[in-house]
Amino acid sequence: MNIFRLAGDMTHLLSIVVLLLKIRTTKSCSGISLKTQELYVIIFVTRYIDLFTRYVSFYNTTMKLVFLGTSISILWYMRYHKVVKQTYNKDEDTFRHYFLVLPCSVLALLVHRAFNILEVLWTFSLYLEAVAILPQLVLLQRSRNIDNLTGHYVFFLGAYRALYVCNWVYRYFFEDHRVRWIPWISGLVQTALYADFFYYYIKSWKNHEKLKLPA
């Protein structure tokens, strides 16, 4: 495992810790898109279904279980916790996220590494992850009150994918010299979607201002 892969995993984990910290300490999910969280549950379930068929390492299994468990926990808080669910911005979280699932499913059936259930599901999870942040970004644009923890959560989530792109480039030059078009392109698309957010996040941090996104 190279430094970019490890840093990506830790940044991803940090984003989830920040989100859970926000929800548990403030008893609020204001500014968080339930639709993005629903997509992430779908992503992790379809990507990590190989937990039942393949063992890679203790680290790999542990991280998969952590991401599965935490994503389901966040969804439970937002949907069923008697206090947290009342703070959900339903009127602003209006992106039709189910329209993202069908195109990603069709694309996974057409473009994949191998035509079997595990490979198609893994490919589908990559395509869906590339666009899963869209409901969250749209919600932040509509919300004029972005708290620090929400901003940090989205930043770390975007940084994780950018670090994974660096990981794939590193592996190409220093390990197996294989071109992995599906994760590369999906990762680049996902990182590009964060570009605007990164700009305003860093700008607000440098100027010590509250984070605001243009409408």
From TrEMBL:
<keyword id="KW-0931">ER-Golgi transport</keyword>
<feature type="transmembrane region" description="Helical">
    <location>
        <begin position="152"/>
        <end position="170"/>
    </location>
</feature>
<dbReference type="GO" id="GO:0005789">
    <property type="term" value="C:endoplasmic reticulum membrane"/>
</dbReference>
<feature type="transmembrane region" description="Helical">
    <location>
        <begin position="55"/>
        <end position="77"/>
    </location>
</feature>
<dbReference type="GO" id="GO:0016192">
    <property type="term" value="P:vesicle-mediated transport"/>
</dbReference>
<feature type="transmembrane region" description="Helical">
    <location>
        <begin position="121"/>
        <end position="140"/>
    </location>
</feature>
<keyword id="KW-0812">Transmembrane</keyword>
<comment type="similarity">
    <text>Belongs to the ERD2 family.</text>
</comment>
<dbReference type="GO" id="GO:0046923">
    <property type="term" value="F:ER retention sequence binding"/>
</dbReference>
<keyword id="KW-0653">Protein transport</keyword>
<keyword id="KW-0472">Membrane</keyword>
<protein>
    <recommendedName>
        <fullName>ER lumen protein-retaining receptor</fullName>
    </recommendedName>
</protein>
<keyword id="KW-0256">Endoplasmic reticulum</keyword>
<keyword id="KW-0675">Receptor</keyword>
<feature type="transmembrane region" description="Helical">
    <location>
        <begin position="98"/>
        <end position="115"/>
    </location>
</feature>
<keyword id="KW-1133">Transmembrane helix</keyword>
<feature type="transmembrane region" description="Helical">
    <location>
        <begin position="182"/>
        <end position="202"/>
    </location>
</feature>
<keyword id="KW-0813">Transport</keyword>
<dbReference type="GO" id="GO:0006621">
    <property type="term" value="P:protein retention in ER lumen"/>
</dbReference>
<dbReference type="InterPro" id="IPR000133">
    <property type="entry name" value="ER_ret_rcpt"/>
</dbReference>
<dbReference type="GO" id="GO:0015031">
    <property type="term" value="P:protein transport"/>
</dbReference>
<dbReference type="Pfam" id="PF00810">
    <property type="entry name" value="ER_lumen_recept"/>
</dbReference>
